[in-house]
Amino acid sequence: MATQSENNTHFIEINPQPPQKTQQQSRAELFLSRIARLLASELNTLFESQSSKQNPEVSQPDSRKTSAESIFSFLVNCATIAQLTEAELLYTTCLVEMLITAQLNSDSPSTDLIIRNNLGTLLLCSVIITTKMLRDSPYTNKEWARHFGVPLADLNKSERIFLSRHNFQVSVPESAIMTMLHAIEIFDCKHTTHRSHVPERV
Questions:
Q1: Which residue in 192, 179, 162 sits closest to 37, CA to CA?
Q2: If you ran DSSP here, which 8-state letter would residue 139 be given?
Q3: Where does 23-54+64-191 sit in CATH, by number?
Q4: Residue 49 near residue 198 (C-beta atoms within 8 A)
Q5: Per-residue exposure over 163-199, b if at least 16 CB sit within 10 Å of its own CB, e if not
Q6: Which helix (H) or strand (E) holds 42?
């Protein structure tokens, strides 16, 4: 992951094409879609805020939107590769949420970590850190780099930047994970009347 000034890093883009659905995946996909909708909403709020700060004289904010479908597709890909559990998905979401909040509260554009063309890198780094924190034998960066077709050196660099923006404090307490689950449920209630069982494993 890199800021605007670190253009030599290979960005991983999120795939706008939804994955093929199967009946067995439907419950897991529904949970992932709820996470994706929440993240898309928060990311779009962040980008609109950034646009207003950078161009205060422009009355019309940036109208481009990050789609929940593209985030959903990318997360399904990661979840399928690593067989992510419910707890791991929530942990991943917490790590992303922490960076969004920090960037929203920052007055310095030079410290912006999250930009539109590095969202895939952001999500992947969050998944990588999550599995390293919660698993005894996580996927290696080399395996992830191979899956996504990116140079290992770039992925390692992105992971270091991700960790540094967290001040190398990436332990998420159980209370924060439960708060995130509650936030997803509240957001879901506000934006859809369809409720579902939260899956045990994706």
A1: 192
A2: P
A3: 1.10.472.10
A4: no
A5: eebbeeebebeeeebeebbeebeebbeeeeeeeeebb
A6: helix 26-54
For position 197, what pLDDT does the model report? 47
Main-chain dihedrals φ then ψ at residue 170, nearest 5 degrees: -115, 20
pTM attached to this predicted model: 0.80
Q: Are 68 and 40 in contact (CB under 8 A)?
A: yes
Separation CA 79–CA 137 (nearest Å): 16
For residues 88 and 130, give the distance between their C-alpha atoms in angstroms, rounded to a whole number: 6
What lies within 8 Å, CB to CB, of 16 at 6+ separation is: 67, 69, 70, 73
Three-class secondary structure of residue 138 per DSSP: coil
Could you report the per-residue pLDDT of 72-126, keeping only the tens digit for each? 999 999 999 999 999 999 999 999 999 999 988 887 665 667 888 889 999 999 9
Residue 13: both structure tokens together: 């883009």
More confident residue, 117 or 43: 43
Tens of pLDDT, residues 144-187: 999 999 999 999 999 999 999 999 999 999 999 999 999 999 99
The structure tokens 């805020």 sit at: 49
